[in-house]
């Protein structure tokens, strides 16, 4: 399996580390060679038919702040045309305005019949239906566990492990930054701005933190879940959204007097698509602490199924990309066995 990795920031570098740590084990489990044949960051790229060493790429990036020779005005899409690959890992940053550049990368790969694994929310929150139709038309696979919940498995759990269930609704906390801010305000009495600064220092907040505090990041994730799990064809713009910018210390202490906490909750069902601050009783699973994410699914047979875990981070998000990559390898393995 020949892989092209686009995006060599936090997530892309995490993926390189994961490939260097797990590559050999995967190769022996699936009896298939895993080769990283191309890597792009925002200004440079490196290719090798024989396969690149992820460790070397990480060292080079640290020293030179780029992964290879400069693109020199060449676009990623032009450079891609000369690379023979099977799977694109798309890990460029989310852009919720028009989904670019990730949308262009994913579209080009699917049109060429290549499989895609991505952590990029923008393209999926804006053009889910179009991308899925494009994948189907070109007999390509598009997987995106890493786009929601970081390391916490939700999309594949809902669609693959709970395949026989009817999932009626999901209530979730999908933004670690907001959860952290609300907790710090409650536990330490910190003012909103100070708690936000701490979240930024910890590296959890988006580059533009209004994506977090205005509920934009949560709404993008809610739209992806609505499409992927409830079969809707909606976009981020269809999500009713309010964030936590207006939450005061007074509101938090009034909630505490009633033994409640304030949480930014996403609610997704066939008829509901909303992100808003809610009062949650202390001790309720959604009153989760720190930067964790949590998903509560209501199902017809299994009842309530809850998954929780780390919602962001270098290796955490890479672990979700890896789970999709392994799923592709497993499918290919089954197909190979059937055709032998
Ligand atoms: N800013 C996001 C969060 C990162 O705080 O959850 C993960 O998408």
Present the secondary structure layout:
Elements: E1 2-6, H1 10-30, E2 35-40, E3 45-47, H2 54-64, H3 76-81, E4 87-90, H4 102-111, E5 115-118, H5 121-137, E6 142-143, H6 155-161, E7 167-173, H7 176-188, H8 192-201, H9 210-213, H10 216-230, E8 240-241, H11 249-257, E9 260-268, E10 273-281, E11 292-299, E12 304-310, H12 314-339
Parallel strand pairs: 1-2, 1-4, 4-5, 5-6, 8-10
Antiparallel strand pairs: 2-3, 7-9, 7-11, 9-10, 11-12
Helix pairs in contact: 1-2, 1-12, 4-5, 5-10, 7-8
The protein binds L-homoserine.
Question: What can be said about the biggest beta sheet?
Answer: 6 strands, mixed
Query: Can you say what the CATH homologous superfamily of the largest domain is?
Result: NAD(P)-binding Rossmann-like Domain
CATH topology of the largest domain: Rossmann fold
Mean pLDDT: 95
SS-derived structural category:
alpha/beta
Helix content bin: 40-55%
Give the helix tally: 12
CATH architecture label of the largest domain? 3-Layer(aba) Sandwich
Instruction: State the low-pLDDT regions, or none.
Output: none
Shape: globular
State the total count of DSSP E strands.
12
Bound molecules: L-homoserine
CATH class of the largest domain: Alpha Beta
Main-sheet strand order equals: 3-2-1-4-5-6
N-end to C-end Cα span? 18 Å
Q: What radius of gyration results from the CA coordinates?
A: 20 Å
The share of residues in extended strands comes to 15-25%
String of helices and strands: EHEEHHEHEHEHEHHHHEHEEEEH
């Amino acid at each position: 399996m020949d892989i092209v990795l686009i995006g060599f920031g936090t997530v892309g570098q995490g993926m390189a580390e994961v490939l260097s740590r797990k590559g050999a084990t995967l190769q022996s489990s699936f009896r298939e060679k895993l080769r990283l044949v191309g890597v792009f960051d925002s200004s440079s790229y490196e290719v090798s038919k024989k396969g690149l060493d992820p460790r070397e790429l990480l060292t080079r990036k640290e020293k030179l702040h780029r992964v290879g020779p400069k693109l020199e005005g060449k676009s990623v899409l032009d450079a891609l045309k000369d690379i023979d690959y099977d799977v694109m890992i798309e890990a460029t940053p989310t852009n919720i305005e028009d989904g670019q550049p990730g949308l262009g990368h994913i579209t080009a790969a699917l049109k060429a019949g290549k499989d895609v694994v991505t952590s990029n929310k923008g393209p999926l929150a804006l053009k889910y239906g179009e991308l899925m139709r494009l994948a189907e038309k070109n007999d390509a696979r598009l997987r995106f566990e890493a786009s929601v919940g970081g390391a916490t498995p939700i999309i594949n759990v809902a669609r693959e492990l709970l395949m026989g269930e009817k999932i009626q609704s999901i209530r979730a906390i999908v933004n670690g930054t907001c959860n952290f801010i609300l907790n710090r305000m409650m536990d330490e009495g910190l003012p909103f701005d100070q708690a936000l600064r701490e979240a930024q220092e910890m590296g959890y907040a988006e580059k533009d933190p209004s994506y977090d505090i205005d509920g934009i990041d949560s709404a993008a994730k809610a739209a992806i879940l609505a499409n992927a799990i409830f079969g809707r064809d909606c976009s981020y713009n269809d999500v009713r959204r309010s964030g936590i910018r207006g939450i005061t210390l007074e509101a938090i202490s009034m909630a505490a007097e009633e033994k409640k906490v304030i949480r930014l909750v996403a609610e997704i069902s066939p008829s509901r698509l909303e992100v808003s601050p809610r009062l949650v009783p202390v001790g309720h699973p959604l009153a989760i602490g720190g930067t964790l994410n949590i998903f509560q699914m209501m199902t017809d047979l299994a009842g309530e199924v809850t998954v929780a875990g780390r919602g962001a981070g270098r290796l955490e998000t890479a672990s979700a990309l890896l789970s999709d990559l392994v799923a592709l390898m497993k499918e290919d393995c089954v197909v190979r066995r059937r055709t032998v």
